[in-house]
Design a protein that fits this description.
Distance between the termini: 34 Å
Amino acid sequence: MTNRRDEDIANGQFLQSCDKRGNCIEVCKYGEDFIPTAIFKMGHIPDPRTHFPLLRDMQIRDDDILLCAYMKAGTHWVWEIIAMLTGQSTEYAAGPKEDTMIEFRSVEKLDALPSPRILNTHIRFNNIPKGLIERKCRIVFVVRNPKDIAVSMYNHISAKGSAFAYKGSFDDFLSLFMSDVVPHNAWPGYMTGWETDFALHPDVPRHIIYYEDLKQLKEGKAGSPKNMKWNFLYRKGEVGEWKNWFTVAQNEEFDRFLQTSTKDSNFVYKYTI
């Protein structure tokens, strides 16, 4: 079962993000984002229906940095790099990047963070704080090839301890990933949406980072953040791991999906290095 996104769906409405076999994840639509309901029903994050309006009006500081990326595109790794650069230290941050994730923490907790704040998010442009654009704060945007993202996202949502508790196979998951209602956001809409918003706001400073380029620079010298509590969030992060997961038929179908969904995009994806 796939999902067709309806632009008229009201904010706050609960929807089902389903694969072709009917394995579903409940999400809450707000703006152009689909927040998984399990994580806020369990009290892990604020309810987006009340949090997102407050987030839009959140007080922003001139030295704030916003790190944006699709889910499993390398946010944790890049966040640690930025934290080390701004802190002028090679030590890992004391807490996980979720402590500075704007959709995962209350405005009060975000306000209490010391400067410079390295805020991060998986949400779309229309839900981020307006002050980030008004103050022309720096934005770092991470791009990763969607095949490796799909593999990493499947392992994340099906992992033991994951709030998603997804039970489908990888083949099932690919049908969900290529649908229009996907937890957090459908990949094509997320990428083309941010690309369009950057074009509409050329005066906002941004730095676009390709995950695969960072991996080439890294050369195996640094690993994932060392925090045992959050270990299920991190995987090997290898470029080209998708080759160990995709069958020939799956790859051909995915390529057709990409050909249609990225035909107007200027991003160039790297599937091997």
